[in-house]
Amino acid sequence: MKRLAKAMLALLTALVLYLAIAAGWAAASFDELLARWPQDTAQAAMSPRQIDILLRIEDPTFFTHHGLSLAEGQGVATISSALAREFFLEGPRLDGVQGNLQGFYRRVFDCCKRIDFGRDTMALVLDARLPKERQLAMYVQSVYMGRHNGQQVRGLAQAAQAYVGKPLAQLSDAESAGLVTMIKAPNAYHPVREPAAHALRLARVHAVLDGSCRPAGWFDTDYVHCAAPK
């Protein structure tokens, strides 16, 4: 028992140290990464209704949480944590010691993304340093939306043109919901290559949006008990 207790204590100490270094690195790197982030967010503007559709599916407590959330239907990622991954790990590359740590944290996330508390710690740092409105604009600009015609699609504005053939601001509620439907797994719910899977998830998303079905707990982001197409 003593050996087990010592091993657990050592593991906990290592985890705390890892998270402390992650938080310190994220705080120290924030300003440089923000300065390098693409500034063109004009095309990513969304109407209040479109924002409501996005948040009700992807992050119901976005404007009240501090980077992480245990809301019903939230799963393991918030918009803040998804943006933290893009911002700190997948975005602009850093040099020197900061770049080495960036590469290390990127490898850790690739290995253990479902249990990577480092990414979650970075989400807390991001949320403390960046207003919610800016977070949302950057997420809408950068979220991965699958591949179309051999090209990677990034952001909801590009996705609107690729999959609907319209500017983002001109999408109807149904078309906006169709894009939000993809975010969980853009290639698995691809409207062109996987139309049946997309239609099934879209029906379930509509059931959540219209209030006829609710997520079955924190981890339920699939809504398998909700409506299916008739």
What does this structure look like?
There is one protein chain. The protein is mainly alpha-helical. It has 2 domains: 1-45 and 76-142, no CATH class; 146-230, Biosynthetic peptidoglycan transglycosylase-like (Penicillin binding protein transpeptidase fold). Helix content is 58%, strand content 4%. It contains 9 helices and 2 strands. It has helices at 2-36, 48-58, 79-90, 96-112, 117-129, 132-142, 156-164, 173-183, 195-209; strands spanning 144-148, 151-154. The chain has a two-stranded antiparallel ribbon with strand order 1-2. α1 (2-36) crosses α5 (117-129).
Layout of strands and helices, then pairs:
Blueprint: H1 2-36, H2 48-58, H3 79-90, H4 96-112, H5 117-129, H6 132-142, E1 144-148, E2 151-154, H7 156-164, H8 173-183, H9 195-209
Antiparallel strand pairs: 1-2
Helix pairs in contact: 1-5, 2-8, 3-5, 3-6, 8-9
Briefly summarize what is shown.
The chain has 230 residues and is mainly α.
Low-pLDDT regions = none
The total count of strands amounts to 2
- The first-to-last residue Cα distance is 58 Å
| H and E string | HHHHHHEEHHH
Based on helices, strands and strand pairing, what is the structural class?
mainly alpha
- By oligomeric state, this entry counts as single chain
* Biggest sheet features: 2 strands, antiparallel
Structural Rg:
19 Å
Number of helices: 9
Strand content: under 5%
Number of domains: 2
Shape: globular
The helix content is 55-70%
Strand arrangement within the widest β-sheet reads 1-2
Overall pLDDT metric? 89
